Amino acid sequence: MTEVPLLSRSALDRAEELRSDTDALRAGWGDARLLRVNHRGQARLDGGELVLEPATVLGPEPVPGAVFLGRLDGRHLWGVRVPALTGDLGDLRFVGDRLDDSSAGLLTTAIAVLNWHDAAGYSPVDGAPTVPTLSGWSRHSTSTGQEEFPRTDPAVICLVHDGADRVLLARNGNWPERRFSVLAGFVEAGESLETCVAREIAEEVGLVVRDIRYLGSQPWPFPRSVMIGFSAVADPASPLTFADGEIVEAHWFGRDEVRAALAAGDWASPSDARLLVPGSVSIARGMLEAWAA
């Protein structure tokens, strides 16, 4: 990787020590700022910047359901899920490259933890309803007190190349034609990251890979993942097989063709080239840019 992935940028001080400090949170509430996020993961923008409201619009002190996100420039920052928003709305996947480091880290964190809350209303241990605690960073079972913390699902994403000037890119069956990316998959229980890389590549395209190397990582809060990037080498003479049904098409592309696709833009490009690549908010693009360079 030649650049830090866009969603890995963050100038946000998470101030974990304050999450259980009720007095400090109440004291900071009067000057705190609030980020509203709807169920589509969108937030309001003003001139390309996140709209942060006074937290006191919710009440005179921290309210249940709000999540303490951290501290920036001395002010406490909170996030809250809302059913609807109006105005100029921004989706992180499309505006992430326009946000500064602070806003990118703030919105990524808010979406990830709020998505977890949406899915964690009942204890996985006893099935009882849960309530948010620790200023939004845990939930307790109302039956047993069992504590659960925000869940992150690890997924590997791997750039497979031939050790020279070709890279393997694939198209998922849910994607329109000509939209390609590197291969990815979720880590299974009891599995190392490197083992997952080898398994996923074998399952998705039937290749045996070697020289697996870590490249970097990026949070991907859709709904609550972290993408862990690798590169690996495979033999382009080996046949491609699509065993698990996720991948419907894959090809080896030359470096010049990848460079041309990067220059043309992303999946939304009007180009009629046979290759379109992901946008800049995805770690996949950063991996391709580094390889192409």
Query: How large is the share of residues in beta strands?
Result: 25-35%
The major pleated sheet works out as: 6 strands, mixed
Low-confidence stretches: none
Distance between the termini: 10 Å
Along the chain, the helix and strand elements come as: HEEEEEEEHHEEEEEEHEEEHH
The Cα radius of gyration reads 21 Å
The residue fraction in helices comes out at 10-25%
Tally of strands: 16
Determine the mean pLDDT.
95
Compute the number of helices: 6
Supply the helix-strand structural class: alpha+beta
Shape: globular
Please provide a brief summary of the model:
With 293 residues, the chain is an alpha+beta fold. The protein contains 6 helices and 16 strands.
Set down the secondary structure blueprint.
Layout: H1 22-29, E1 33-37, E2 42-46, E3 49-50, E4 53-54, E5 67-72, E6 75-81, E7 89-91, H2 92-95, H3 101-119, E8 130-133, E9 138-141, E10 147-148, E11 153-161, E12 166-172, E13 183-186, H4 193-205, E14 210-220, E15 225-233, E16 247-254, H5 255-264, H6 283-292
Parallel strand pairs: 1-6, 11-15
Antiparallel strand pairs: 1-4, 2-3, 2-7, 5-6, 8-9, 9-10, 11-12, 11-13, 12-16, 14-15
Helix pairs in contact: 5-6
